[in-house]
Amino acid sequence: MPSMDVKINKKRWYRPELTKRQYPKLGFSTKPIQEKYLEAAVEIVLKELSMGKDGQVYDETNDPVSTDWMVVLAWILDRMFLDRIPAHCLISDPSHLPPESLRFFHIDPNSVDAMIDGALSLANHMGQDLDRVAIKHGINRYLEYKSPNLTHRPQVPIYGFYLRSDLVTLHPDLRVNTTGGDTGRAPLLRHEIIVDGVMLGLFDCIPGQDFKTLNFTQPPHQQRFAAGWYLEADKLEISIGREFTVDAKHQDYSKPEEAWQKVTMFPRSEDDWFTWSTVPKPLVDGKDEGDPDADLRILHLPSFVQRQMDLLNANMVSFDDGGNKQDYFHDTVPNSALLSMQLNNPYYQLIIALDKEEASGQAAPSPLSGLRTAATGPVQELRSLRFMTPTTVPRVPQPDDDDLDPLE
């Protein structure tokens, strides 16, 4: 009996040696896992990794659940903003951007998708990369998400310009802004001098109702105070600038200068606005004891401001504001604010009309303006990633060990 028990126990624990084909396939590339992996990966990205600690989608204004996702999202967005992309990949030939030129361009979404797809494929040692697709789902959800604190989705550039000019070198802090509809979005997404003499600007819309003009303005710190615009020994010409006391939406500084805005002063003018003289100070017995006001130009205050305020009140016309007649300018007290505005030297501004209506009578706008939609309200194009199909590299089939002939 004891020997029989030992024999039974041996059979109980005995297992025949399995061949390689008989081992269950539990690797990452097996079919059962591949069929469920993408769905599970997308679910984890959308429900966990791409979320903020406040339960909302992470949109760079809240704290992320995953700091790794924060880094990946920021890196992808930098590529969509063309950051740290070699210049030869954006400008294929130097002749496309000659000196003293302004060139506009449209950002091809297919090129951006291909670039991001290739960037996410780095360090991939598998034949099929499903993580890349899951990351793109998270990026698209961020691009489609509208934060409760904002009135629009995240802005992504689709249009831009290159300015190559000595103006960029002389004025590196040149102000750039746009005019158009009040959309609540930032008009300029990226404004950077990428190399000496070359400026890059990116926008989230093409020329249209939201983007009518592109304006280059002299930096504020290079402006100065000046009593007039033309000075001779016996003449000073003054230009009265338009001022407004109404809302900004009713203000229009683009009208040509009218006759009442031009004032010419002479040393002996009646009702002079200045105390001035071009006569050198006389010397008495070799000492400077002459007229203390000689060879000086001094403003008569507050008379200087009062005269300009009177001209503005008399010549700035009125307009109809919803049935109510309202003056563009109305003030009764001369003040330092009006004085500083009038003494401010006019600044230089270059306005480029991009919309067809704004460019009437000028050179035809870019053909890209035809890409606009027929919508009448503010338009924000959804620029999401489109290459969502998993990339597969077919593997070379390898025979099992059991199929190999040791004599071959």
Provide tags for this entry:
alpha+beta, 4-stranded antiparallel β-sheet, 3-stranded antiparallel β-sheet, 408 residues
Q: In words, what does this structure look like?
A:
The chain is an alpha+beta fold and 408 residues long. It has 3 domains: 31-153 and 382-392, no CATH class; 159-222, no CATH class; 230-346, no CATH class. The chain is built from 9 helices and 16 strands. It has helices at residues 2-13, 31-49, 67-80, 87-90, 109-120, 130-144, 166-170, 303-315, 336-343, and strands spanning 101-106, 128-129, 159-164, 175-179, 190-195, 198-203, 213-217, 230-232, 235-239, 262-265, 274-276, 297-299, 318-321, 324-327, 349-353, 391-392. It is elongated and about 135 Å long. The chain starts with a helix and ends in a 16-residue tail after the last strand. Mean pLDDT is 82; it is low at 360-377. Residues 399-408 have a biased composition (Acidic residues).
Count of helical regions: 9
**How much strand content do the residues show?**
15-25%
Gyration radius, rounded:
36 Å
Pick out the low-confidence regions.
Answer: 360-377
Mean pLDDT: 82
Biased composition (Acidic residues): 399-408
Region (Disordered): 384-408
